[in-house]
Amino acid sequence: MTHIVFDNHVSEPRFILLDMSRFGELKVLEIGDDCFSYVNQFKLIGMKKLESVVIGERCFTKCKNGCRSDPRRRFHLTNCHSLKTLKIGHYSFSDYSVCGIREVPALAQIQIGNSSFAYASLVLKSILVSQ
After folding, report:
1. pLDDT category, 63, cuts 50, 70, 90?
2. 107-116 — which CB contacts under 8 Å span 24+ positions?
3. 29 neighbors 56 (Cβ within 8 angstroms)
4. 25 and 2 in contact (C-beta within 8 Å)?
């Protein structure tokens, strides 16, 4: 499977961990608006072929228009060497406490909407910038 697209409004209260790392052949991940409200941890780790991640508005948040940080809620994007594009819509991850992005040397575009990761610490490591 090289492409995964989630439609709008995909959410389930019992679904609290989304670890996409097992999809080693994935190149494109697209998530519509208002998805995964109950997910406390979202992981994209070691996905060598992943090229693009696009996340819609108000995703991965219980508070659709802003709220406080929840220390249990974390986003990890690590060791995805082919990732070129990361786009996150407005108010997504608004109550997440960690946004960790590491070892993504091909990353050329990061777009993060208003109030996304509003209360998170942002960690960028091993990102090469070409001139």
Report:
1. confident
2. 107/83, 108/84, 109/84, 109/85, 110/86, 111/86, 111/87, 112/88, 113/57, 113/88, 113/89, 114/90, 115/65, 115/66, 115/90, 115/91, 116/88, 116/89, 116/90, 116/91, 116/92
3. no
4. yes
CA distance 54 to 27: 12
E strand segments, 40-120: 41-45, 52-55, 70-78, 85-88, 96-102, 109-112
Q: Which is nearest to 57 in space by CA: 110, 98, 10, 93? A: 93
In 3D space, the residue among 78, 18, 19, 82 whose CA is nearest the CA of residue 52 turns out to be 82
pLDDT digits (tens, 9 = 90+) for 70-121: 999 999 999 999 999 999 999 999 999 999 999 999 999 999 999 999 888 7
| SS3 call for 22 | helix
Residue given tokens 């508070």 in the structure block:
63
* Contact indicator for 5, 23 with CB cutoff of 8 Å: no
